[in-house]
Write a structure and sequence with these properties.
The chain is of the alpha/beta class. A hairpin with a 2-residue loop joins strand 16 and strand 17 (248-249). The two termini are 32 Å apart. It binds ligand 1PR.
Length: 524
């Protein structure tokens, strides 16, 4: 029996699913006594350090946790569960950590995108029983803006390079913790969990020891989901956002089945976009929650869900905040939520008022779940102009001239799945959303969607240059060379595709092989 500490934020569902898939049973901590009587304790933390410590105090779990750690019984901390072991964190300087280990938690200070999101390697510093069966060159899924600085080097289990070398795992006696998420790290991550859960014993060093680790470029499979005309939830795919063919919604498969297939075929991440979410009330949209629940039982890579993340009023006049909607998705197995239409409205309000409201979905969700949990999905389309001064938007010079030979364009944001254009450009939207707390940008492009013509490199360069958070390049992938192009001609951290995978035109493995042959770092 594994005892799991759920302090009320973040996605414990995926940790539960991963542990259960290994045949273990789980008891969730409901009281201090549950911690004190635990035989093996797993503490998965996602989100913000401040809310986590605050919540542990509120639930009176700090002292029992300290007592458990002092007893040196098996403990596995994940992400914030690692950071919590230290004395304090820059993220919430007024709140102390558990103080088991001397040192503190610092924000990444590198020229690279922060959060550090994606699959990176580990450099093993001491043998451990959690390394059984690993080669040493596996990659694990990280998602964090802060990392620990341990005062005592003997507790360091692994380090990882991201701009500089940081501590990505610790071990002292039976207490282990990883900055990365084993429950989201495919087979290698499951192996770490299995080793922790096993009664065994022997501390080993993997055969291959890396002296440098590199963040992989991620390949994301995207499933646009909506009810078809019969009311069944299906994966569909549009051409420039038009998902109907001869009047009916294209049906490319069942969401749970396709997600499983992409996991097995090596997708680094899976994104579900509920494309009619803008007009539905997602808490009544149980099929979507079910899709997530079922998918997360078998798919151990990060899951993002988008569509309809905003404040609602139901038919009885009761209001639900975007935070409540997101919380339901996180509880059902999502690791990140993606905000589309609402982000545009939030940015427009921010620009009109000249200051943040403090109450927007982006701010509220990132405050509780951390910036890394908030993706902003942008649905722009090109608007051609004759000169940069023609409009009050951020305009780029383009090599792809407009219909009347225009040499400039701006990228107009749209809402409601491209149905409504707004007086806001994609570059400004990305900048505002980063300021408000978004951790990643999903950069679609209506002009390229479903065309197989390749990504809009100019758009991606304009947005990556304007923000310091990771950008997911999306729309237009048609050949393996397009992935190579997007990773060499832009700073995008990941590339998302839909149609070519759904139609089995190009397997994910072919994309990865091509990238690896062309010296682009990928996860195997
Ligand atoms: O506005 O917060 O409710 O979110 C709605 C979400 O649904 C947004 O993220 C929006 O991008 C998405 N969406 C809305 N309508 C459509 C549509 O297609 N009619 N899909 C839609 C967007 C775009 C991509 C697609 C890539 C790759 N899908 O994510 O998967 O373009 O496609 P390709 O590789 O086949 O070219 P809200």
């Amino acid at each position: 029996m594994i005892t799991l500490l759920d302090y009320g934020a973040g996605n414990v569902r995926s940790v539960i699913n991963a542990i259960e898939s290994l045949g273990e049973t789980i008891k969730i901590v409901r009281s201090a006594e549950d911690i004190l009587s635990a035989e093996k304790l797993v503490f998965p933390g996602v989100g913000a350090f401040g809310s986590m410590i605050h919540s542990l105090h509120e639930k009176e779990l700090v002292e029992p946790l300290k007592a458990y750690l002092d007893s040196n019984r098996p403990f596995l901390g994940i992400c914030l569960g690692l950071q919590a072991l230290f004395e304090h964190s820059e993220e919430a300087p007024h709140l102390g950590g558990l103080g088991l280990l001397a040192g503190s938690v610092k924000r990444f200070d590198t020229g690279l995108s922060v959060p550090h999101i994606g699959w990176n390697g580990i450099k093993v510093k001491q043998p451990s029983r959690i390394f059984g069966g690993l080669n040493g060159d596996e990659k694990f899924y990280f998602v964090h803006s802060y990392h620990v600085e341990a005062a005592d080097p003997t507790v360091v289990l692994t380090t990882t390079d991201y701009g500089y070398e940081f501590v990505s795992g610790i071990q002292t006696g039976n207490i282990m913790a990883t900055q990365f998420h084993p429950e989201k790290s495919g087979r290698a991550g499951l192996r770490i969990l299995e080793n922790f859960l096993a009664a065994a014993d022997e501390a080993v060093r993997p055969i291959r020891l890396s002296d440098r680790t590199r963040l992989a470029k991620r390949i994301i499979a995207c499933l646009d989901v909506r009810a078809n005309d019969r009311g069944d939830l299906v994966v569909t795919k549009g051409d420039q956002y038009d998902v109907r063919e001869n009047g009916t919604v294209r049906n490319l498969g069942l969401p749970v089945e396709l997600a499983r297939r992409y996991y097995q075929e090596g997708a680094d991440e899976i994104t579900f976009l509920n494309i009619t979410g803008f007009r539905d009330f997602p808490l009544e949209d149980m099929p979507m929650l079910d899709v997530l629940k079922q998918t997360s039982q078998h798919v151990f890579v990060p899951l993002t869900i988008g569509g309809g993340i905003r404040d609602y009023k139901d038919k009885d006049g009761r209001t639900y905040s975007a935070l409540e909607v997101a919380a339901e998705y996180f509880r059902s197995g999502a690791d990140k939520v993606s905000i589309g239409s609402d982000a545009v409205l939030i940015a427009e309000a921010y620009l009109a008022d000249g200051r943040p409201s403090g109450r927007s979905s982006i701010e509220e969700i990132s405050r509780v779940y951390g910036n890394q949990a908030v993706v902003v999905s942008i649905d722009p389309r090109r608007v051609y102009v004759n000169s940069p001064q023609a409009v009050g938007h951020q305009v780029i010079e383009t090599a792809i001239a407009g219909p009347a030979g225009e040499k400039y364009c701006w990228y107009q944001c749209t809402i409601k799945g491209g149905r409504q254009g707004c007086e806001l450009d994609a570059i400004t939207l990305a900048q505002v959303c980063e300021k408000l707390g978004a951790g990643e940008i999903l950069l679609n492009c209506i002009d390229r969607d479903g065309t197989n013509l390749g990504f809009d490199i100019e758009l991606i360069n304009a947005v990556t240059a304007a923000v310091s958070i990771p950008v997911i390049a999306s729309s237009g992938a048609g050949r393996v060379e397009h992935f190579q192009e997007v990773f060499t001609a832009t700073e995008a951290e990941s590339a998302l595709a839909a149609g070519i995978f759904h139609r089995r035109e190009i397997p994910i493995e072919d994309v990865k092989n091509y990238l690896a042959d062309n010296q682009v770092e990928i996860r195997r």
